[in-house]
Amino acid sequence: MKRNRAPKTILSLMLAGILSLSLFGCIPTQNPTPKTEGTPPSQEAINQEDLAIQLLAKYGIDDKNEYLPPIDPVPRDQTFTYQLNFDPNDYVDEYPSTYDWVGVFADPELTQIVPMDWWADKVTDNNWEIKISPYEFPAAGIRNKYGDSSHERKISESLNDIDYVDFKGQYKDWGNLPRYYLAQFLDLDTGEKLTKPLVQVFTVQAELPAPATTVFVDEHGMLSLKWKPVAGAERYLIFSYYSTDDTRYASYWPGTNLDVVDGTKTEWHAANNRDFMSINIIDPRIYPEKAAQGIETEPRSYYCERIGVIALGPEGHSSLDNLHKLGDFDNRLVYQLARDAWDEDRYTVSGHLALFLQSMDDMPSQIPVQMCDASIVYKTVDYDFENAEELEERFITENSWDEDGNPTSLEKVRVMKVNFRLPQSGITGICRVEEPPSTWKRDLEQIKKRQEALLRAAMSQQTQETIQQRVDMRAEGQERPTSREITPLDIEVFATNPLSEYLAINLLAGAEKIPLDSFPKASDTNHLTDALFEAIYQNPLILGISEMYLDRYYNLIIEYEDAPAVRVEKQQAIQDKIQQVIPQIITSNMSPLEREIAINDYLCDTIEYDMALLEDAQKTNYTYVDPKYNDSFTAYGALIEGLCVCAGYAAAFKLLADAAGLESIVVTGTLEGSIGHAWNRVLINGEWKNIDVTNNDNPLLFNVLLNLPDDIVAGILVEDKEYLLDSELYRFYSNDDSAEYYRIKGAFYSRTQIVDELAAGLQQDGSVVLRTDYSISEGEYRAIVRDVQVKLGGVDLYGCHLLGLIYLSSEAL
């Protein structure tokens, strides 16, 4: 049984602040505990290189490209030479484009061309050389906001005057992209087309190190960047790449400088999110003709597609650490209030929403907003209850007009006023209730409790920091290290590809140095990051990583929070607990659905949200969490200590589901498009289902998110792409609600039935929880409550709703 505890309703709005610094799953980022040697688990040791060979053979993946070892940073004007043992003139008709021979690209799919200068020289009668060098202008070059491309060397204080920064001259600079893909398509001996292109990743040696950048949404809902300071940088340039019609050459065209930031700063915040929309949303009030044709959205021809940071200094500038693709992020950026947020009692001025209400019961619990990908997300309203006030205001009323329709006077009207905001949206507002009852303060307390019940508990530790391809100075002057032996844990590993499984096995074994030379494709750090996050999220016995980076020899360096002995002890405790729990809650005759619900209910009964962690983070305005709370981000906190945040709930569910014979994954993303969150999907009768145990553990709306499909939960749970390899995401979509909890319990009713059923439940028990259509609006919910009140003779009712799940009680919350 769950211990007595404060109800989860008191989690309140503070979660939004603490989660803005913690976007994903389960890896705290505090300084690691000093390491000591521990006793490894009793498994057979294996050499890391042998492990890689076994896994590559196991998967037999047929990659489109064959990767060669990466090339160390090259000079900006590097020329690449290929020796041919045939006359290229004999193949001009067969391969008319230079990119049929060799080429430079900005992406591993070899779709975005980096223009190059290309020529062939005859060495002997049978030998030729192909040489490629930088083109006229650099890829991802910097230009001023007018689009001019000056050739002079110039670093200006004014954004409007900035031309190319430290311009090297035509044909002398590959540019500022994070990495380049040098591809060979022909056999150099025979001239025949290769079955797979030979690809080498190379980077360009810049004058300054690239700033390690992270994208996030600030408290006002604006796209923001933060980065680690770069020694020698006097300013930072916010670089943006805008979409073009010719996507083949997307990497070539220079970007636009959004802003220049002083060198003492390490953050930038957009003034608005309009530039980041790839879709135009058709407002019926502005485009009634299009709305009449049923057109709601249309593609936008020109928008900011990628964004990054370049460091500027007196001797030159850096390349980009990363060009963040905003298409992976626009579902978290608020564009505007959704059209459903407007009606005759509401109006907006510059993002400020005024609500003129007849009753306090009409104060909305959620307000829909439209994100930059055109999706609708429901934001729980954050009311300023402490500063609510009653006052008299002068209004023109229906009695204030003469016969000619002219106003004659202003009438005093008593109103209750409370300000509000929609978290991480930049949208604020005010509720005005005319002629409030004398009990308005008491009634407001009920609204407060209702809102707290809707603010789902969610906190996960940030792992969004990109793996940095930086040199480990401790390795300078040493020979390339060899593979080491590791002792794998005796458990089944989840992976969709050999690199993810290789990383997972090493991390589960506590490896501190993981050589990647057997996986040439890992030289693409985007692929490496994707595989690494899949390994971490989908294998919750990987505990306590505090830092990870690449050294100069292309080893992945891992630092852990706990000493090896402590980490092994925790892993064993989790495994022992699972073996103890499964026989208690799972029987052999249970169906997969019954097993899922049993695990969900067990976690809801035995875990409480870690309020102490929340209170500790408040002391530093959510910028730091004491390392003593690190376990709350893991399955150890959930299963052993009974205290965790959402990452712990999700990790524990996956481990128990695996042990119970269910297929499941951890999903990462945000709540309401702003608050970092983790939940699960589980395979039931051949269909993937969403299950959010953290939110299901709700004292009023129990199991509100159990087996709902993606299109329904999308208004609350906004999914990212971190938790699996991007190419595998499509396999786990959820499109079926036949096993939704209230459907299988016989407590799901149509809109025409729900009033009678709610009234009957209230008469029998005094409170009731039933589900109706998922899409009921705030107005429809209020209408349902009023109809129930009429049926029960006008009694006072208290409650809340979410995605069609309605809680009502005749007693105050």
Envelope shape: globular
Major sheet size, sense and barrel closure? 6 strands, mixed
- Backbone structural class: alpha+beta
Give the count of helical stretches: 16
Report the strand count: 43
Runs in which pLDDT lies below 50 for 5 or more consecutive residues are 3-42, 145-164, 457-466, 469-478
Percent of residues in helices comes to 10-25%
Output mean pLDDT. Answer: 82
Into which percentage range does the β-strand content fall? 25-35%
Task: Note the gap between the termini.
Answer: 23 Å
Rg is 30 Å
Layout of secondary structure:
Blueprint: H1 14-19, E1 46-47, H2 48-59, E2 66-67, E3 71-74, E4 80-84, E5 102-105, E6 116-122, E7 128-134, E8 142-143, E9 180-186, E10 193-204, E11 213-217, E12 223-227, E13 235-242, E14 255-262, E15 267-269, E16 279-281, H3 288-292, E17 297-299, E18 304-313, E19 316-317, E20 324-325, E21 334-337, E22 346-349, E23 352-357, E24 366-371, E25 376-380, E26 382-383, E27 389-395, E28 411-422, E29 427-434, H4 440-454, E30 485-486, H5 498-508, E31 513-515, H6 525-537, E32 545-550, E33 555-560, H7 564-585, H8 592-606, E34 608-609, H9 611-619, H10 635-641, E35 643-644, H11 646-659, E36 664-671, E37 675-684, E38 687-691, H12 693-696, E39 706-708, H13 710-713, E40 717-719, H14 741-744, H15 754-765, E41 767-771, H16 778-791, E42 798-802, E43 805-809
Parallel strand pairs: 2-10, 3-10, 8-14, 23-29, 34-35
Antiparallel strand pairs: 1-30, 4-7, 5-9, 6-7, 9-10, 11-12, 12-15, 13-14, 13-18, 16-17, 18-19, 18-20, 21-24, 22-23, 24-25, 26-28, 27-28, 28-29, 31-33, 32-33, 36-37, 36-40, 37-38, 38-39, 41-43, 42-43
Helix pairs in contact: 2-5, 5-6, 7-10, 8-11, 10-11, 15-16
